[in-house]
């Protein structure tokens, strides 16, 4: 089993023997390592590998069963989190403009109104995702790709130091993926820490320099070419197939690390 490569960089997030789960049933076991500031990191693995669980723990939605997460001084507003689209209720009657403007909530407060500068920033964010003509449309009337652009525009306004993306390209078209990848590369160039849960291995190989491969524990973590090897991907598949959903305790088999 690989461990994160040693880098002379300041950590943005650290995991110390972290185990996560639901109703005390472990879902992710014994993660230890550092996510460096400014890294562009993909989290990959089979369905049920614990990828979304890990992101929810980083944003504070899920408390560890054991171990700890160190955010190294990052406060809540320093971290922007985009959950899976399927977890977002699009039936609420809100316009595209107002949905994007929610990215300024930290600055204007729950009852504050947008001034001219705030409105201009919302319009600039909409332009950045190529939705300038849809500001007044209800979000419920958007296609999947259009709605994901709205969510990325909102992230732009949050101006966070750490950005967590859970399957940001699910059920969107190739053109939207290309445009959103451009925004992710922009964030990376600005020195922000971007962590994305992804399923498209070729997309990861092309755009993400670092990868964390999960199968309810860390199988490999480091430079993407060293992580996404046929051996590691096959190991990930075999771990997923052998997982016992009825297991009641957290088991950490050291022998499996050398498989």
Automatic annotation (TrEMBL):
CDD domains assigned to the protein according to its UniProt record, in alphabetical order: ABC_Metallic_Cations
Cited InterPro entries: AAA+_ATPase, ABC_transporter-like_ATP-bd, ABC_transporter-like_CS, Metal_Ion_Import_ABC, P-loop_NTPase
SMART domains: AAA
Domain of life assignment: Bacteria
Any GO BP annotation: zinc ion transport
Pfam families: ABC_tran (PF00005)
ABC transporter domain location: 13-241
GO molecular function terms noted in the UniProt entry: ATP binding; ATP hydrolysis activity
SUPFAM superfamilies for this protein: P-loop containing nucleoside triphosphate hydrolases
Keywords: ATP-binding, Ion transport, Nucleotide-binding, Transport, Zinc, Zinc transport
Family, as annotated: Belongs to the ABC transporter superfamily.
Protein name: Zinc ABC transporter, ATP-binding protein ZnuC
Organism: Methyloceanibacter caenitepidi
Origin organism lineage: Bacteria, Pseudomonadati, Pseudomonadota, Alphaproteobacteria, Hyphomicrobiales
């Amino acid at each position: 089993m690989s461990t994160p490569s040693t880098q002379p960089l300041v950590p943005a997030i650290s995991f110390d023997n972290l185990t996560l789960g639901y109703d005390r049933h472990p879902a992710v076991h014994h993660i230890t390592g550092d996510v460096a500031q400014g890294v562009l990191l993909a989290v990959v693995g089979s369905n049920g590998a614990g990828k979304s669980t890990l992101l929810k723990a980083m944003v504070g939605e899920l408390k560890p069963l054991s171990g700890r997460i160190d955010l190294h001084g990052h406060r809540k507003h320093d971290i922007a989190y985009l959950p899976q689209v399927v977890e977002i209720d699009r039936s609420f009657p809100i316009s595209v403009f107002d949905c994007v403007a929610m990215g300024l909530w930290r600055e204007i407060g729950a009852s504050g109104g947008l001034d001219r500068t705030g409105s201009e920033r919302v319009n600039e964010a909409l332009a950045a995702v190529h939705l300038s003509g849809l500001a007044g449309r209800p979000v419920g009337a958007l296609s999947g790709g259009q709605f994901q652009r709205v969510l990325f525009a909102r992230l732009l306004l949050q101006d966070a130091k750490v950005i967590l993306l859970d399957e940001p390209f699910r059920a969107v078209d190739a053109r939207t993926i290309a445009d959103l990848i451009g925004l992710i590369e922009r964030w990376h160039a600005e020195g922000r820490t971007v962590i994305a849960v992804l399923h498209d291995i070729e997309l990861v190989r092309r755009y993400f320099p670092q990868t964390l491969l999960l199968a309810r524990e860390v199988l490999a973590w480091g430079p993407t070419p060293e992580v996404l090897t046929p051996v590691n991907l096959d190991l990930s598949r075999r771990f997923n197939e052998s997982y016992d959903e009825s297991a009641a305790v957290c088991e950490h088999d050291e022998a499996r690390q050398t498989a």
